[in-house]
Amino acid sequence: MIMQLDDVVELCVDFLLENVSIFTIKRLYELEHETECVRLAKRIQEYEINHFYKISREDFFLRFSAKRLKALVESDNLNVNSEEDALDAVERWFNHNVSDRRSSLPELMSCLRLTNFDVTLLMTRVKPLPGCETLAYKAMSWICEPLSRTMIYLKYIEPRKGLSGNWRTKALMAIQTECEDSNHGCIYRFNKRKDTWVQWDKITINPMSFETILVENDLYFIGGKIDHEAIKDVNRWNLNTKTWKRLPDMHKARYWSSVAELDEKIYVMGGLANLVKVSQSVEVYTKTCGWKEVCGLITPRYGARAVTLNGKIYLIGGHCEGDLKAVESYDPNTDKWTACAPLLREHYLPGVS
């Protein structure tokens, strides 16, 4: 009989949560309080985690207890577009009742992934909060002094699961590849809350006209030129730690090449070998084997763009003794390039997706 009653409770809870919305969840809070049903409380918390961005903007969110909010912001599955969304929510909750919530704030802030913020944000938004100065300094030290990380205790240093995969779906980045005044550009990130671009990090490598590609949490900087000379250099910048690592050189120097990622492999195609020589070379990189050369392009080109579809790489447009209409596809299973139907008009540096 007890098992049957449990089954009925579970069915009722499932029905309630399957039909809940931001507008009706307030009634579920009342029901949770009246029944003290553990199963219902757990399912409501799952709903809050999955819909945190919307819930944190509702008035009833401001009445959450510190314990309830802590259970949400420390969750690895918290559904936010960026860690800044979680910070916004904690600040909004705190500012609703500063005097009563001052003592709870440091513990809540320690549940955020502080090392995912840049130093400027830590200085301007985290450090001024009551009781959070030490947390801010620890996070800044962790970011700026990699060798000291083993001596710095922070509750969380890894990004949440929802933010640790494909960053392209979570934030916009812009990488400065050409600089008139210096060989060092910047990496910028779009701040959705302020509708503006902010500097994320300095590019500390020397080349210009390199290509970039994002694979998981790493941004690869491939080739480029220094003093008009093509180079083979490859560097990697980690989004979480903001640290650089030099990788094995390519076999061929090139700049203004095309890059694509397919099946956890990075392909680099064409480019300029020098001011007059257009490259036909194609290389592929894996973490275990480094670089190796594969079948060259049908049409040598630079300033083309590459996109992947159905297990193949498509190389589109570019320039070689004039802008190109030419399109070709690469099948890694056969190591072969095949000509495709040309574009209707020539395109140099086209936008593709």
From TrEMBL:
Domain (BACK): residue spans on this chain: 25-127
Keyword Cell membrane applies: no
InterPro entries, A to Z: BACK, Kelch-typ_b-propeller, Kelch_1
Database matches in Pfam families: BACK, Kelch_KLHDC2_KLHL20_DRC7
Keyword Protein transport assigned: no
Residues that span the membrane, as ranges: none
Name recorded for this polypeptide: Kelch-like protein 5
UniProt KW keywords: Kelch repeat
Signal peptide: none
